[in-house]
Design brief:
This protein is α/β, with parallel strands linked by helices. Helices cover 32% and strands 16% of the residues. The chain has 18 helices and 20 strands. Strands 1, 2, 3, 4, 5, 6, 17 and 18 form an 8-stranded mixed beta sheet that branches. A 5-stranded parallel beta sheet has the order 7-16-8-9-12, covered by helices on one side. A hairpin with a 4-residue loop joins strand 4 and strand 5. Helix 11 runs antiparallel to helix 12. The two termini are 28 Å apart. Bound molecules: NADP nicotinamide-adenine-dinucleotide phosphate.
């Protein structure tokens, strides 16, 4: 399949990797350094994964740029200058392309190749993958580098196919520039994606109509340019920056405040929140009092504080009320970070339509009908989210021992050991897969840990002359139970969101917990202990 345009022969590698995003790229680099043969299959025409697909206007980091970049190579750290504290998608993609060039990754990547199936051949202890165009390859290891948010979901609204204007999901944004000048634009969805897109589109659209079901609590991003002196200072601090990310629960620069909300007087805690609200990045979410994630009363106080901020920023009180969440607490869904989002609703060209009270009735050739009234549009943007965490797996036919389907195995929710391995699926490694700390993380920080763990495993197997690894059912049961016990204490597990698999476009998706809420340091410690204990809970052969 490698360079399969020239050959129909089934190529065989030590490892086949699906996905050339942040995790697949680093995995390829590490395997090469171990002297193993590897090939990456990527549906897109270039590297970058999430940053390749999500080209919608306003797409940018919510992590500080310098905390997001790879940390594994000093030369790379030294020769890249970030332009903004939170880089925009074009700069991010440029960075990932630079990484691909620097490490000459593209020669081992097959682009424009969407994998349809991966089946384990028990006789040969090998995975065989088949692309949608019929090309095949085999690898002793199958490494999925799919990303948790890579299978976009569309609503099913009567008449969608009738619309005669432009219509895109944000994750399938065109590569050509799109102008909003003078156009009547509609956006459905107000998650982290919708919030970024709306803020940007409102700057130039003729009119912008936002169709909102549930509002989210959004908080200021605090972006700004990085001067070259500042970049020098950041570069000097890289060891400190990455050391800090290693210590924090989510791999971000912001660490939880270990005081409890009620330990402070109302004035004291408001002062802390005021400061966090105006700080860069996720401080108000991941740098807050630790009980805001677990104690409803503490969370209620913080939620009230953020609601007050929303009301203060939106001039029309009726619009402010619509934008203010009341059915969940602050931070129990992923907090969208914004740069003037609420002020957009003070502009004369922007209107908000409540589709919670009056759902969209239908889409016509010329617009969206709500409550009997057509909102005439030239363009509809679907910022409607993803079949999160498991969706990228279930859109392929992955089969392990005895032809067992992974989708069937996970029908009642994922079952894994360490979020990296699955019983009955030998030699399959799921980077940032379900129940892996990477699903609730400043993702490259967890990706590097995942890839390093897998690379150490490969080294161990090579040195010991081993050909296969499979988790025991018992270890899988233990990890799955641990994931759910950890989630049970968190308010996140009680709220509808992609963390809990609630997506109304996917009525059959099981409501359970898809991430690991125990934090990246605890996760890393458990991974390290398993390895140090001779891969406890695994059968190696
Ligand atoms: P999302 O958080 O799942 O939000 C989807 C939005 O679409 C919600 O507002 C949802 O409303 C709405 N929606 C879905 N189906 C609908 C329908 N049929 N009718 C009306 N509304 C519908 O998805 P997302 O905004 O793409 O974000 C997903 C995740 O991607 C984020 O949480 C974040 O982790 C990541 N992300 C990261 C960045 C970054 O790092 N900078 C940027 C963007 C996204 P309901 O809430 O009512 O269901």
């Amino acid at each position: 399949m490698a360079d399969a345009n020239q050959t129909t022969k089934t190529e065989t590698y030590d490892a086949v990797i699906i996905g050339a995003g942040v995790s697949g790229m680093y995995m390829l680099h590490r395997l090469r350094a171990l002297g193993l043969t590897a090939r990456v299959y990527e549906a897109g025409s270039g590297v970058g994964g999430t940053w390749y697909w999500n080209r919608y206007p306003g797409a940018r980091f919510d992590s500080e740029s310098y905390s997001y970049g790879y940390s594994f190579d000093q030369g790379l750290l030294q020769d890249w200058d970030w332009q903004e504290h939170f880089a925009g998608q074009p700069e991010i993609l440029q960075y990932l392309e630079h990484v691909a060039d620097r490490f000459d990754l593209r020669r081992d990547i097959s682009f424009n190749t969407r994998i349809a199936s991966a089946h384990f051949d028990e006789q040969a202890t090998t995975w065989e993958i088949v692309a949608e165009d019929g090309r095949r390859a085999r690898g002793r290891f199958l490494i999925t580098a799919l990303g948790p948010l890579s299978a976009p979901t569309m609503p099913s609204i009567p008449g969608m196919e009738d619309f005669q204007g432009d219509a895109w999901h944000t994750a399938h944004w065109p590569h050509e520039p799109v102008s909003f000048d003078g156009r009547r634009v509609g956006v459905i969805g107000t998650g982290a994606t919708g919030v970024q897109a709306i803020t940007e589109i409102a700057k130039t659209a003729g009119t912008l109509t936002v169709f909102q079901r549930n509002p989210n609590y959004c908080a200021p991003l605090g972006n700004g340019p990085i001067s070259s002196a500042e970049m020098d200072e950041i570069r000097a601090r890289y060891p400190e920056i990455f050391a800090r990310c290693r210590e924090t629960h989510g791999g971000f620069l912001h660490n939880a405040d270990h005081r409890l909300t009620m330990d402070l007087s109302p004035a004291e805690r408001e002062a802390v929140w005021e400061k966090l609200y105006h700080e860069r990045g996720f401080g108000i979410w991941t740098g807050n009092f630790r009980d805001t994630f677990t104690d409803q009363a503490a969370n209620d106080l913080l939620s009230d504080f953020v609601r007050g901020k929303i009301r203060a920023r939106v001039q029309d009180p009726a619009v402010a009320e619509l934008l203010t969440p009341t059915n969940h607490g602050f931070g129990t869904r992923r907090v969208p970070l914004e740069s003037g989002y609420y002020e957009v609703y003070n502009q004369p060209n922007v209107s908000l339509v409540d589709i919670r009270r009056n759902p969209i009735e239908r889409i016509t050739k010329t617009g969206i009908v709500v409550d009997g009234q057509e909102h005439a549009l030239d363009m509809i943007i679907y910022a409607t989210g993803f079949d999160a965490v498991t969706g990228a797996f279930s859109r392929m036919d992955i089969r392990g021992r005895a032809g067992q389907s992974l989708t069937d195995k996970w029908a009642d929710g994922p079952r894994t050991n360490l979020g990296l391995t699955v019983a009955g699926f030998p030699n399959m490694l799921t980077l940032v897969g379900p129940h892996n700390a990477g699903t609730f993380c400043n993702i490259p920080r967890c990706i590097e840990q995942n890839v390093d763990w897998v690379s150490d495993l490969m080294t161990h197997m090579r040195d010991q002359g081993l050909a296969s690894i499979e988790t025991t059912e018992a270890a899988e049961d233990d990890w799955t139970a641990h994931v759910y016990e950890t989630a049970a204490g968190s308010l996140l597990s009680k709220t509808d969101s992609w963390f809990t698999g609630v997506n109304q476009n996917l009525p059959d998706k099981k409501r359970t917990f898809y991430a690991y809420a125990g934090g990246a340091p605890a996760y890393r410690k458990q991974c390290d202990e398993v390895a140090a204990d001779g891969y406890r809970g695994f059968v190696l052969g």
